[in-house]
Design goal:
Shape: globular
Number of strands: 7
Largest sheet: 4 strands, antiparallel
Oligomer: single chain
Number of helices: 1
């Protein structure tokens, strides 16, 4: 192998090691609001979770709602594992949360989410 081929091979290896494999599609942001269009059973809270999607292809993501505190230390109050993601559209999830929580208490976590 000559020096030029070695340099080219080194550059290719460096570039491939530094490249990131970003998720496509991704959720841009997540908004939780009380769902006033449905009658929630008992004192439970019915919410709608919306998340705009960016990317170049369709996919599937997941979202979970947590109460106050660190999501790493809590069980979700509600979760969906097969949320359809269509680029340049808004994904919607209707969820029911047990009584005793308000919208302000809820911490939505969705994946894949845009970094930053």
């Amino acid at each position: 192998m000559n020096a030029r081929t070695g340099l080219l091979l080194t550059l290719v290896l460096i570039a491939s090691g530094c490249s990131s494999f970003d998720d496509d599609p991704v959720f841009i942001e997540v908004v939780v609001a009380e769902d006033t269009d449905v009658a929630c059973p008992g004192d439970d809270l019915c919410v709608v979770v919306t998340a705009p999607v960016d990317g170049s292809r369709e996919g599937t993501g997941w979202c979970a709602l947590y109460g106050p505190g660190d999501p790493d230390d809590l069980e979700p109050l509600a979760r969906v594992d097969d949320l359809t993601m269509v680029p340049h559209a808004v994904s919607r999830w209707d969820a029911e949360v047990v009584a005793g929580h308000t919208v302000a208490d809820l911490n939505p976590v969705c994946h894949p989410m845009v970094e930053g």
